[in-house]
Amino acid sequence: MGSKNDDLGQIDGVGGATSVTSKVAVVSPSARPDVDVDYTFVQVAVGHETIDLSGNCGNMCSGVGPFAIQEGLVVPPPGAHSLDVRILNTNTNRCIIETVELDGYGQVREAGSHFIPGVKSPGSEIKVAFLDPAGSVTGKLFPSGRRIDQIIVDGEELEIPSFTVDATLIDAANPFVVVDARTLPPSVRDTAPGTSISLRVAEAIRQRGAVLMGLASDLEDASRTRGTPKIAYVSPPDHKSPDPNALAIKVLAYSMGKPHPTLQLTGGVCLASATVLEGTYTESTINDR
User: What GO MF annotations does this protein's record show (predicted)?
Assistant: First the structure.
C-alpha cells in the first residue's frame, strides 16, 4: 500500500495517502457450509508501518461479493441475473449477505442506473445485509450498559477548558462513539473538522469511549488502536421540516484520526440501529424533528 518507511504520501504504493483508500480485503473460500467466502479486513496505517485488524469496513465489504464472482470463488447458476453471496467477516465473526447483479452469463453487471448520494455516475446496485450485527466486537449492542453516556475530557493536555459530551456508545457492525455535536466545546463547534484542535478533541473523546466500551484498558492502550472504536458527531438539521423525507440528522465521521469524506457503511448501520432504539441520543434527535 506504500506505508513502508513511514511514508505519509504512500508514493511507492496504491494507498492514496488517505485512511479511506489505504485498505485491504483478504478473501478466500470458506470452510463453513453456510458461507461462500471468508473476508478479513486490514486497515493499513498511512505514514506508519502498522496494520489494524480490529474491525470491519462496510465499503470494502461491498466489493467482496463481486470479487468472489469474478475470481471464480463463487459460481452463479446459468442465466442468473442476481446472486446472494454469503460472506463471513473474520474480524467480527459476523455474516453478511450481498446481493450482486449479474449479466445473465455468469459475470458481474457493472453498468447500471443505481445512484448513491455523493457519487455522480450510476452503476449496478449491490445490496449489503449485515446479519445479527449487534455486539460485533464487544459482544454487546450497548457495551457500557447505558444508551447515553457522559464522556468527561480533561482539557489540560488539549490546552482548552475541560468539557463533557453526551454520547451513545453502540456496537452494530462496528463499535462507534456517536457524539451529540451540540455538547462539544465551542472551540470545536466553531472550527473546521480538519484543524489540529478538532482532530485532537475527536481523538480524546474516542479514546475515552474505547475505555468505557471495554475495548481498551486505559487511554494509552486506546491510542494504539486507531480504527476501533470509530467516532461520529451527530446533530439535528439546521431547519426543522414536517416533510418525512427531509433531512433528519447531520453526521460528521472520523476515520483513523482524520475527517471521513462521507460516512462509513458500518456507521450507517450503527446510526440506523440507534434511531430505532428508545433512549439513545440519535433516537431523541429524530423524534424531535
Answer: isomerase activity
Q: At a CB cut-off of 8 Å and minimum separation 6, what does 105 contact?
A: none
Sequence spans of domains, the chain:
23-130, 149-288
What would the grid cell of residue 207 be?
479514546
Mean pLDDT value of segment 12-40 = 88
Number of H helices, E strands in the chain: 7, 12
CATH placement of domain 23-130: 3.10.310.10
pLDDT (0 to 100) of residue 183: 94
Residue 207 CB burial class (10 angstroms; 0-12, 13-18, ≥19):
buried
- 23-130 and 149-288 have identical folds: yes
Q: What is the grid cell recorded at 148?
A: 447515553
DSSP assignment string, 101-125: EB-SSSSB----SB--TT-SS-B--
Strand ranges (E), 187-249: 230-235
Per-residue pLDDT band for 157 (boundaries 50, 70, 90) equals confident
Which residue from 112, 107, 109, 35 is spatially nearest to 76, judged by alpha carbons? Answer: 107
Burial class (CB in 10 A: 0-12, 13-18, 19+), 229: buried
